[in-house]
Amino acid sequence: MNRLNKLNQSLDYWQRFLNLQKWDLKIKLVDFKRTDYSQSGDIEVDFKNKKATVLITAKETNKDNSIILHELIHLLFWEYDHFVEKFVKSQNKDKYFDLLEKNVADLTRIFLEKDK
After folding, report:
1. How far is residue 12 from each of residues 83, 85, 93, 101, measured CA to CA in Å?
2. pTM greater than the 0.85 cutoff
3. Quick one: which of 14, 46, 62, 67 has the most CB atoms within 10 Å?
């Protein structure tokens, strides 16, 4: 089975697991251009139309499953996250994003452990 098929199977699984069946979700392999850190995933969201694309590094990795889950957890928090961002003062934005990323990473780890 090729990588894209495996990614789509993983996406389908986590979409059901997280009760995101009303969403139109897709996978896209990309070459991330950031130079400040090694990025492995991201998500593009059209919240109004319930569409999202999970972006995954085109570089081979053994973390595809956790990347997909991590990005879908960001989707779960999307509306809340964008609501809170409006109230966080600029000097606290980095702290807010660090806390958000820590919580998403913790939930990803918990779900992966429980899913074993």
Report:
1. 28, 29, 33, 23
2. yes
3. 14
